């Protein structure tokens, strides 16, 4: 799969917003704003590759990308918290 430079910038920007949003949804993770943003960017990459392959489509545009990325970041935050926190949500 090829990602253009503009697509990469959109994923990074959306990942910043999604990381902040995921940090607000998943409280008590202890990563701080910078850690949540980094995990949000990783969640945006995961969501941009995984959701289309699973056939999950919300729509098009920036808002749908933020929703995709926030869901990916929340899942990633929960997994990291599960691994780091000894198996407790």
From TrEMBL:
Chain segments annotated as transmembrane: 6-23, 30-51, 66-83
A Pfam family matched in the record: Transgly_assoc
Cell location: Cell membrane
Keyword tags: Cell membrane, Membrane, Transmembrane, Transmembrane helix
Topological type in the membrane: Multi-pass membrane protein
Main location: membrane
Cellular-component GO terms for this entry: plasma membrane
Record-stated family: Belongs to the UPF0410 family.
Name the UniProt record assigns to this protein: GlsB/YeaQ/YmgE family stress response membrane protein
Species name: Bradyrhizobium rifense
Organism lineage string: Bacteria, Pseudomonadati, Pseudomonadota, Alphaproteobacteria, Hyphomicrobiales
